[in-house]
Amino acid sequence: GQQVMQIPQYQHVQEGEDFTTYCNSSTTLSNIQWYKQRPGGHPVFLIQLVKSGEVKKQKRLTFQFGEAKKNSSLHITATQTTDVGTYFCASFNTNAGKSTFGDGTTLTVKP
Amino acid sequence: DAGVIQSPRHEVTEMGQEVTLRCKPISGHDYLFWYRQTMMRGLELLIYFNNNVPIDDSGMPEDRFSAKMPNASFSTLKIQPSEPRDSAVYFCASSLGRTGTRSTDTQYFGPGTRLTVL
Predict the structure, then answer these.
(1) Contact call for A42 and B98, based on CB within 8 A
(2) Cβ pairs A/B, distance under 8 A
(3) Which of A88, A99, B49, B75 is paired with A19 by a 20 to 30 Å CA distance?
(4) What is the pLDDT of residue A43?
């Protein structure tokens, strides 16, 4: 089945610094989803990418889907303390009807 | 909409006891998922249902775990007997299903049940 690997596992940044997490797969993905989980909270859907080379932005967040549809990235510009949490990528298998989640990247931001 | 509702939010029990976790999905959603989250193993899919029918239970750890969905608005995850290694946060999530639009793939998670087995 589809497997997605995420790096890094942890990232500590100073407030104002940029942050990037990467999601990689050995197989072509039909789509990629990104979720954010705040400490003590539950995963919350952020965005879905489906097209090769697709780039989407949400304020300071930029999401990219690779040309080969085997990797994706989430970039946060000028991090804020409200950005802390774990960011998961997931790939939804349309035929199987379920998502495969990466292990997540936990971001901490030092004020 | 109230979102996905889970109960209880916290459960502390002793080893050997039966535990039942409950979930009410978002009305109209065709898919329901049960996940377990631990520091060691991350977010694991245990089982999911489509239109109340279990589709894939390959993630269920062992026979002590069982899940049911008697109707479109209710599902349970039962652990009998419980063991300390079952301690985790259990999430229920639902999604609209495959109707041809991208947004149907979005999973909406409930707040989770934090289970502690002593």
Answers:
(1) no
(2) 53
(3) A99
(4) 96
